[in-house]
Backbone:
């Protein structure tokens, strides 16, 4: 199977779209007034959560390059959860800003 290559602004834009998509979904869970997110499962009932890292882990984008951007933000949330145990949504918002 041939690899798809993107360069320069086209690649940066695709990755940025993925970062923004994931961060925008996760940041609604921020703070004490954060909203719940309903996650569809392939089996069983949907999951309702307010945990940023759980939401980040469940998001999968169709476009490969957008998914790469989302994967970078997902890694930020996961590492924050492993190290500090909390603050994953804040870390995601900060990663988006960077």
Residues:
């Amino acid at each position: 199977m041939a690899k798809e290559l993107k360069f320069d602004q086209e690649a940066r834009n695709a990755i940025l779209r993925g970062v923004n998509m994931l961060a925008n979904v996760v940041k609604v869970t921020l703070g004490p007034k954060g909203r719940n997110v309903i996650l569809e499962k392939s089996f069983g009932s949907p999951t309702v959560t307010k945990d940023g890292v759980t939401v980040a882990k469940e998001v999968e984008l169709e476009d490969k390059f957008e998914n790469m951007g989302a994967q970078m933000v997902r890694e930020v949330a996961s590492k924050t959860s492993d190290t500090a145990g909390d603050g994953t949504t804040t870390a995601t918002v900060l990663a988006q800003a960077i």
Observations:
- The radius of gyration is 14 Å.
- Helices lie at 8-26, 52-58, 64-83, 88-97.
- The chain is about 55% helix and 5% strand.
